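Schema walk-through. Below, the input block comes first and the output block second. Nothing else is stored per chain. Lengths vary across the set, and this one has 488 residues.
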Amino acid sequence: MENENKKTSSPQAAEPEVEFADLPDYDDGSGGSHALTIVMVIIAVLLIIAYSIGAYYYNSHFLHNTVVNNTRLGEMTVEEAEREFTQDFSSHKIAVTEKERTEIIDPKSVNAVIDVGTQIQDLKDSQNPWLWFIRLFGENRQTIHLNVTYDEAALQKTVAAMECFKEENVQAPVDAYIKVGDSAFEIVPEVMGNTVKKEELIKRIGDAFATCVTKIDLETEDLYVLPQVYSRDKPINKALNKANSITHGSITYDFSYKQEVLDYNTTRDWVIITKDFKLGLDKDKMRKYVTGLCNTYNTMGSSRDFTTADGRQIHVYDGDYGWKIDAEKELKQLIKDIKTGTDINREPIYEYRAMCRNSERDDVGDSYVEVSLARQEVWLYIDGENILETSCVTGKPKEGRRTYPGIYSITYKQRDTKLVGEDYSSPVKYWMPFDGNRGLHDASWRHEFGGNIYKSNGSHGCVNLPEDAAATIFKYVDTGFPVVIYED
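--- output ---
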């Protein structure tokens, strides 16, 4: 049993032998980094060398891409740059480009001489050679005025002889302006012309010598005299619109038997446009127009055709009856109306009005009082019907008392008043004045009317009537009613 409980021990197994192959040594990377460092140091050294060489080189040369007066001076020495400006200066011609031609200014013709002095040296000294690499890209353009002398009198003469200054070749500029068109105001465009600013051109040529410019374009360099007003300018267009606005409307005057139209054909001549394009109206011309209306359509005091009660055709002159335009008020209203620019239909503004306007010579119509001085008779017509016929007594035919022929308006009418003069004071029931202090009225102090009474016992200018006749007339007449008085 003891033996059974004992484990049998076996011999310990032998460990296998391991063979190692030959392996390369381990690289920790320090060798590659060292090489990169060396390369970078070499590049830096080369850059420093190149930078130093460049600085040294540009210490005596102009920096790369240096352009002076349109001449490339990069990599040139001062001596080389000076020769660049001076050796061929005598052939430094300037082309003056005009609208129609190109003319050449030769420096020889004006004895031009250049002396660069220290200017090129100073310009080179002003550059920083240590910043030479900055100029490798992009131009550094500069303009300097070289010392150039020339015969100013010769240049004046040369310029004056140019084709662009000959009278036959010169067209002066013309400003745009507003003109009166057939149906509306219009803008006439500006004319550019080709007048050259002589003194400025002479100065510009002198500058061109000093700055080596070989071309002067008169147009692009603003050496032409230009118009002051262009058709596109706001002030001239604003004035145009305003002028057309106020003349666009019309005014139609209504004179009953005819109309008078005032439109653009007349008002266009009244518009005033100032040099700075302010608008106004010519009041003198407008007043003349209104005066023309008055002369044509005023009837007060003018001759009229008149048919008497017995059928005779006569002409009646003078008197205060008729149409009379108030010239000043009409002028003011006309100005207002025109400024509206609208169509207006109206009567003129009257100072005095008649009862009708049937024609140029008929404004009495069919209702009137008719007085014959020779017959001492009075008639009252209403709408063509003879309402009344009566005898009367008119003024004594002597200075200060006569009744004057003419056509008059009843000023007003009044009941129960007293007429007072130097040698009389007469109460009347019906007072109808016309022609100042003369009038139609009843005369209770008279027992007879008509005949030749007026010659010896006439009134002080009034038309004396029987009371019933005066009452009838008083009933029908009113302010403005016409009274027609004639001799026979």
